[in-house]
Amino acid sequence: MPDQRITLKDIAQRVGVSTGTVDRVVHKRGHVSAEIRDRIEHAMKEMGYAPNLAARSLANNNKPFRIAIILPDYRQDPYWAQPKEGLERAAESVRHYNVQTEFFSFSMFQPRDFLESVDKALESGPGAVLAAPLFLEEAKILLKGCQLQNIPLVFINTDIEGADILSYIGQDSYQSGVLAGRLLNFGLSDGDHAMLVNLDKEVSNARHLQDKERGFKDYFNGIDKKSIQIHTAVLENFDQPDFMREWAKKQFEQIPRLNGFFVTNSRAYKLVEALDAAVQDRVKIVGFDLIEPNLKLLAQGKIRFLINQNAWHQGYLGILTLVNKMLMSKEIPRTQYLPLDIIVKENVEYYLKRTLELPMVIV
Amino acid sequence: MPDQRITLKDIAQRVGVSTGTVDRVVHKRGHVSAEIRDRIEHAMKEMGYAPNLAARSLANNNKPFRIAIILPDYRQDPYWAQPKEGLERAAESVRHYNVQTEFFSFSMFQPRDFLESVDKALESGPGAVLAAPLFLEEAKILLKGCQLQNIPLVFINTDIEGADILSYIGQDSYQSGVLAGRLLNFGLSDGDHAMLVNLDKEVSNARHLQDKERGFKDYFNGIDKKSIQIHTAVLENFDQPDFMREWAKKQFEQIPRLNGFFVTNSRAYKLVEALDAAVQDRVKIVGFDLIEPNLKLLAQGKIRFLINQNAWHQGYLGILTLVNKMLMSKEIPRTQYLPLDIIVKENVEYYLKRTLELPMVIV
DNA sequence: CAATATGCCGTGTGCGCACACGGATAAATT
DNA sequence: AATTTATCCGTGTGCGCACACGGCATATTG
Predict the structure, then answer these.
(1) Of A117, B160, B268, B300, which has the fewest Cβ atoms less than 10 A away?
(2) Which of A56, A57, A17, A52 is nearest to A37 (CA)?
(3) Is A234 on the interface with B (CB under 8 A)?
């Protein structure tokens, strides 16, 4: 632990030059003779120089670092409120580095709206872009735009394979499916049946869904201790209670030992609502996301496990990633998967608090 | 989102005084007339002034903030390596605020050694103290010392009820016991038996153990769906494989339907080693901590769940708490419980990586 | 009334860094 | 030899804040 922090001045004195010259070397701005450059670089290593970020940010304070954020409208789907919150929280915690954020929201059902946001965002001349690229073709235009302007781009939630971006931050859908299988299996008995239920109208998450399904089935194929039979259901009419109840009733008639459900998104509560009280207590349900209706059912024991995708963290890490890269010149991994938190009634409160309290910023 | 950051100068101009006067109000250093003080405070609220931490830390950079850390020697118990790591990591991330840390380790079996560390720590004239107060009486001396020197004190791992400290950071032992009960119960059937196993020689964790046991039993008393019978075992000879095997054999003879174990500390692997191969696959074991031997058995399915106490975070949060209080003048809650992470084979890697990658500091 | 004390407030300096600007030297050109 | 050009390097200023210092009033005292 170095007692005294090494400053530009220190190594300038050591080498016998001015701080300006050292600064030129630090920023590789040229106009320094090879010999002196070598001596400075050598001295920096030897003395263990590390720039004082506080001072750096102060000195840079005239030019803000602006991040354009392209996100679906959270009023269309409450899911997007979570990344948004994380983004806002992160923005708040790096305000002191003069980081500014600007939101460009779009309708998650209209690719053209996305494009419009892309245009607006790029025209605003940002220092970096963070986006949820729901539409593949349109996202490629964003990609090109960022390359042209030579600014870093971060994707959250949805990745585009092979895209030349700074980083992708999201869930590991496949692994979350595997995890769901694991949790369900733990509570099921030999000979039981389980069902994967997809309650969704759109296919915007098609890829995530596929991966989850694959992971879920792979898990059950991989075990040999018990025999659990897996079924699959896709229901677009999850908003019609009557339809749902009817559907559920039929399932149990056809599959008496149907004892487990895996709801692949945050709508597990919709499934519970469709079940009779007695059934609610018997079947094991695994779902996603700590949203209010799910939490209530978790507390009642009617949802056994919730897997927390940590959507909040997507936004948070997104900002931190950009700040780490651009202001702290850190190396960033191409892919950053978020932890898959397992939530039950007994530990849920810590996860709810964590997003509120945990203080953090930059290293 | 305020486009332009508000500075001291801004509000000085607005009120019509100098920055020095505003600064005096900010730091409550007096020598300001009541009227001007009010006007300044009003303007600060109205304009939403927030100090620029970078500038503040720069201006304070001559006087480091030194934190004395009193911790058990991690060579005696690998557990303590985790908080230590968290402490070091946190120290690293706040280095730029000129925060320095100094470790004073002690033997976890010798109260007098602890006292010696306390003396050394207090004599070094720290700006704050962080300690793991394993010994009640001796800890009281530390308490008095800090009160005398008027410096904040943070406890980790072990709390002392009613002690006047800044904050306690640790696990919620009771709740972790409840959680263990929940997890075990999920995999057990009506009529099964479960056993709480305490593999420990010392009673230094007596309190934590009691709480865990209470939580565990409370859980099973609270359910009415199944009937699970609970047993308890305290084994000090966990280091003798022959003894352990013999003991285990006897248990299964006496309790044929013994299908679940809750190991109250990180030594779940010791229990697994004492079981026959067939039994290893059958019984459900819930333990604590992501240590190497446990992880291996988790991957093999021989430990079903590990509850992660996040000992790493104790250290990390400890430093952040002190920095938040002293440098950012934030309010700090008296008790900070750490999340109870549920770890299975399928999500373990995220938790191992998380401690390595997650970048953070201060808000 | 002068001398001193007291309350209030502005000014100046430095923290470490970034960067524009200009000065110095040597090399190349006229 | 005088001038230009290129190369290399030092200096100065400001970022927002903390704080010592000193100045200017007004109040207090001899």
Answers:
(1) B300
(2) A17
(3) no
Distance separating alpha carbons of residues A261 and A268, to the nearest angstrom: 9
Question: Is B223's pLDDT higher than 80?
Answer: no
The residue ranges of chain A whose pLDDT is under 50 are 1-2, 356-363
Q: CA nearest B314: which of B158, B147, B119, B207?
A: B158
Are the Cβ atoms of A1 and B101 closer than 8 angstroms?
Answer: yes
Nucleotide with minimal C1' distance from the CA of B54 is: D16
Residue of chain B whose Cα is closest to the Cα of A178: B346
3-state secondary structure B239-277: CCHHHHHHHHHHHHHHCCCEEEEEECCCCHHHHHHCCCH
What's the token pair of residue B1? 């989102």
Cβ contact, residue pair B186, A186, below 8 Å: yes
Q: Which two tokens stand for residue B261?
A: 């174990």
- Paired tokens of A327: 């202001």
**pLDDT (tens digit per residue) in B243-266:** 999 999 999 999 999 999 999 988
Please state, in angstroms and rounded to a whole number, the distance separating the CA atoms of residues A159 and A136.
9
CB neighbour class for B200 (10 Å; exposed up to 12, middle 13-18, buried from 19): middle
User: How far does Cα B297 stand from its chain's mean position?
Assistant: 25
Give the nucleotide with minimal C1' distance to the Cα of A59: D15
Q: How far apart are CA A195 and CA A259, in angstroms?
A: 8
* Whole-angstrom distance, CA of residue B216 vs CA of residue B231: 11
Contact call for residues B163 and B143 (beta carbons, < 8 A): yes
pLDDT at residue B356, rounded to an integer: 47
pLDDT tens figures, B37-55: 999 999 999 999 988 888 8
Token representation of residue A221 = 């194929």
- Do residues B182 and B219 lie in contact, with contact meaning Cβ atoms separated by under 8 Å? yes
Helix axes A8-15, A19-26, angle to 10 degrees: 110
Say yes or no: A363 contacts chain B, CB-CB below 8 A: yes
In A, which residues are within 8 Å of B304 by CB distance? 186
| Strand C lies under 7 A from the Cβ of residue B19 | yes
Using the Cβ of A63 and the Cβ atoms of chain B, whether some distance falls under 8 Å is answered with: no
- The torsion of the CA quartet B145, B151, B157, B161, rounded to 10 degrees, works out to 70
d(CA A330, CA A82): 26
| Count of C-beta atoms within a 10 Å radius of residue B35 | 8
Residue B208: both structure tokens together: 């934590």
Q: Residue A167: enclosing H or E segment and its boundaries?
A: strand A167-170
pLDDT in tens, A231-260: 999 999 999 999 999 999 999 999 999 999
CB proximity list for B290: less than 8 A, separation 6 or greater: B306, B308, B343, B348, B351, B352
For the record, the structure tokens of B201 come out as 């020689």
B292 within 8 A of B311, measured Cβ to Cβ: no
Q: Of the candidates B146, B143, B68, which has an alpha carbon nearest to the alpha carbon of residue B102?
A: B68
Residues of chain A with Cβ-Cβ distance to B179 below 8 Å are 344, 346-347
Residue type, B260: G
Domains contained in chain B, CATH given: 8-51 (1.10.260.40), 65-171+311-338 (3.40.50.2300), 173-308 (3.40.50.2300)
Instruction: Show Cβ contacts of residue B310 under 8 Å, excluding neighbours closer than 6 positions.
Output: B171, B338, B339, B341
